[in-house]
Amino acid sequence: MKPFRPILLAAALLLFGTAASAQLSLTPAPPNPFPKPLEPEKPKPRPKPAAAPADKDKAKKPAADKAGAAKPGAAADSADAVDPDDPNVDLVYGAYQRGFYKTAFEIALKRAQELNDPKAMTMLGELYANALGIKRDYDKAAEWYRRAADLGDREAMFALAMARMAGRGGGPANREEAAKWLASSAKLGEPKAAYNLALLYLDGQTFPQDLKRAAELLRVAADAGNPEAQYALATFYKEGTGVEKNVEQAVRLLQAAAVAGNVPAEVEYAIALYTGTGTVKNEPAAVALLRKAARANNPIAQNRLAHVLLSGQGAPRDPVEAIKWHLVAKTAGKGDLMLDEAQAQLSPEDRAKAQDAAKKWVGGK
């Protein structure tokens, strides 16, 4: 049996039938690539602890980004930014979130050596792997991840699995070892591990292909709010792959993934809203999602939006804007003969406007 390659829901109205009117022709799109593995995320900053009165000015000095963590090298390192007398403060993360990576390293190293703290070990792996406050060293990162994983830290297990998959630290790539760590991490509830393990069961190379098991793992990750898993699982429900076919459930998962910002899910949820398949029909909401995804440079969304604007169904008719998006989509390989014909029927002035608008969009990306 050939490895299963899920046709993710960014395809077309083949997904939801042909409920669109004859005025709006949404042509099928090529299937999306096989889902990409999720890499380990940087530790999420904890809520910023209140600084002691004497430390307030010092705590305000680092320039933090929107996530609450300063960019590497953006601030001078200082242990004074963390109040050691506050029992509610996680000193390692308190330093990390301010960008004091050297301080985070020193505290984490002390905790790892004196308290055998697996979370501190995971942080050391993170700092070494990403050259935060210390020179990048994948071997040392893998060593700390392994020590934390041996103590049961699921995030370390996942990070170690991805390192072994990529051959970063601890020798050449080893898919079998990586799969074992993914399985251990997923068993402890790590959603990114569950998602990546599902991909291995889909691929059928490391493990025998098992679509039902893949669906179960995707469900774990989807229930934890992972948008990639929600999108992939929606495909399973749409196709009846590893689960009983359920278009309504597929659309609910698409909606969740779209709300989380998954662009392909936005496109497919928009199509479902536009056609009223698996959900209540809502053309204005569908067009709004298509615009959002088109502006995120999704060529399928750009193509669908061009059809909507050309037909005037769901949005005011605007042939110039329609052809603009058609031309933008074509630069990404999403051609459309019907829209080519519509472009040829424009007046020379309108055709020039559309071409100029498309050039500005592509040039400004």
Commentary on this structure:
This is Sel1 repeat family protein. Residues 54-64, 348-359 have a biased composition (Basic and acidic residues). InterPro entries: Mitotic_Regulator, Sel1-like, TPR-like_helical_dom_sf. Residues 25-82, 344-365 are annotated as: Disordered. This protein is elongated. The chain has a domain at 263-365: Alpha Horseshoe (Serine Threonine Protein Phosphatase 5, Tetratricopeptide repeat), CATH 1.25.40. Helix 7 packs across helix 8 (191-203) and helix 15 packs across helix 17 (348-363). The chain has helices at residues 56-60, 91-97, 101-115, 118-129, 138-150, 154-166, 175-187, 191-203, 211-223, 227-239, 247-259, 263-275, 283-295, 299-311, 319-331, 337-345, 348-363. Mean pLDDT is 81; it is low at 1-34 and 43-89. 57% of the residues lie in helices and 0% in strands. It is built from 17 helices and no strands. The chain is mainly alpha-helical and 365 residues long.
Q: Specify the CATH class of the domain at 263-365.
A: Mainly Alpha
Tell me about the largest β-sheet: none
Instruction: Give the end-to-end Cα distance, rounded to a whole number of Å.
Output: 42 Å
CATH superfamily of the domain at 263-365: Tetratricopeptide repeat domain
Instruction: Fill in the CATH topology of the domain at 263-365.
Output: Serine Threonine Protein Phosphatase 5, Tetratricopeptide repeat
In what range is the share of β-strand residues? Answer: under 5%
Q: Mind telling me which CATH architecture of the domain at 263-365 this is?
A: Alpha Horseshoe
Number of helices, where a helix is a run of at least 4 consecutive DSSP H or I residues: 17
